[in-house]
Structure formats: C-alpha cells, structure tokens
C-alpha cells in the first residue's frame, strides 16, 4: 500500500483547531510579505476548517481590499462582524477597533464603498445588541427588584465587587494613593469617543458614538450621565430615522432607572419603546418589552402596597401614642382632683379641732 506524500509539518498529528490557527498565521505571514494571493489561499484553507472564524474573516477582508476585491472584502467584513458573540462583549470592541482605527482614516477615493460599509457594520452591531434582549429562564427564580435587573442583565449585588481586606494577603490590600486603572481606562475610552464625535460626518456613526458614551457611563454607574447622553442619542436617531439605535438608547435609560429603582420613570421609558418595537415587528423583542412592562407594573404595585402598610403602621403607632398620652393626662387630672379633695378635708378637720 502506497502512503500519500506528506509535508514535514503534516507528520505531526495536529488537531483541526491547531491546523486552522496554523493556516491563519501563514496567511498573516504572507500578508506581511505582500504575497497577497498566497495569503488569501491560506485564509481560505483556514476557513475550510472553521468557516465563521471572525479573525480569519477580518484578515482576509483586509487582504482582499489590498488586491482590489472590494465586494469580497465587504462581505467578509460583514460576516466577521455578525459572527462575534455579543454576550462576551467582543463585538463592540471589535467594531470600535476596526472603525475607529482604520476605516475612519480612509477617504472615499481609497474606500469608495465606505458609506455602505459604515451603515452595514453599525446596523449589524445594533442588531446584535437587540438580539441580546431575550427572556431568561431564571428570571422568575429571583425576587423583588432584582428580577427586573436580572432580566435587563444588570448587576444585582454590588457588594460582591468589594474585596474584603485579609491580614497577610497582599492581593486584598490596596494603597491609598494607588492608581485606579479601571477608572483611567474608562476616562481614556470616553475621551476617544468624544473626540470621534466631533469629527463624525455620518448620522449612523453619530448614533453609535452617543450610544456608546451612554453605555460606558452606565457601566461606571453614572446613571444621570447615562440618561443625558442616551437622550442625545435618541434625538440623533430620530433625525436619521434609525429605529434600532433609538430603541437601544431607550433601553439604556430603562436600565439606568431600574438600577436607581425609579419605577415610574422606567415605566415611561418602556412606554416610549413600545411603538418603536411595533414598527420593527420583531416578535421576540415585543414579548421581551411586554414582559419588562409587566414586571415593572408588579414592582410598582408592591412598592405601593408596602408604602400603604408603612403608613398604616405609622398611623397605628401615632394613635396608640396619643391614646396613651390622653390616658396618662386623664389619670393625672384624677389624681390631682383626689389630692385636692384630701387637702380640703384635712383643712376642714383641722378647723373643727381648733373650734373645740
């Protein structure tokens, strides 16, 4: 039996995942060597093993752009943006890196399909965010105001983020003047978005930037700032007639009000979102908004009932205190009258004794 001729590297029993990464790395190597046709060949072999790998699609998109295959580059870019999971948060980061560092610097002469590409990418990102609003099975297992927060995928327990100091454990100790790297990254990313907002020319990009600024404020628990920037995003979405970004901005306001437990304001925001959802005609999204509205109504009813119970308890306590005070005053007056009577009788008896 004749064995097929193998390349030296094929003798090793690589797994399909390892082979896919090897082909992708070879494609990047030949891209740097400006051997673009060979690079596309290895990107294709990598995609044969994993057809929806976003990194390989992104690299092949850049490679096709350099060899003037604009249609293929656009298709690969859209497929790469649509295949990143929005749950892990990689999609927004990927879009920001590509659009903020690369596409924004290209002119229409270099990238004649820039407008179409920008619209497709940002609308794909908006659809991915909308798809994240789905009903969860464990929502009904939670109680109280945590139920709505859990449905909106908001953190329900902030105390878990606090690290308790343990004597002798350096990882739990923090210097008073130690830099807060999370806050520094937050400020840096916020400044980047605001700088891009100044020079943006496209309505959909403006909607995206305003929404991202509001979302960053929401992550940092700056709820008032989140609502303010989300309102600006809603206005920009209305001017550009973009229902997706308008709905996403309203949902940020709903999340902020839910975190602050402002149920009435959240109810108004959900009412504002309902006509937009009906115009989009997405059944799952309609059921999600209806369920959010029902949960919010239940929370309002529970809040009113608890307030009425508290008011009744206060009234009863006030009534008991007033009755107690009145009884004490009545007893005091009776004791005073009896004391006066005894004093008068004693004086009368003393006068009678003197007369005798």
Automatic annotation (TrEMBL):
<protein>
    <submittedName>
        <fullName>Uncharacterized protein</fullName>
    </submittedName>
</protein>
<feature type="repeat" description="TPR">
    <location>
        <begin position="20"/>
        <end position="53"/>
    </location>
</feature>
<feature type="compositionally biased region" description="Low complexity">
    <location>
        <begin position="319"/>
        <end position="329"/>
    </location>
</feature>
<keyword id="KW-0802">TPR repeat</keyword>
<dbReference type="InterPro" id="IPR019734">
    <property type="entry name" value="TPR_rpt"/>
</dbReference>
<feature type="region of interest" description="Disordered">
    <location>
        <begin position="305"/>
        <end position="356"/>
    </location>
</feature>
<feature type="compositionally biased region" description="Polar residues">
    <location>
        <begin position="330"/>
        <end position="347"/>
    </location>
</feature>
<dbReference type="InterPro" id="IPR011990">
    <property type="entry name" value="TPR-like_helical_dom_sf"/>
</dbReference>
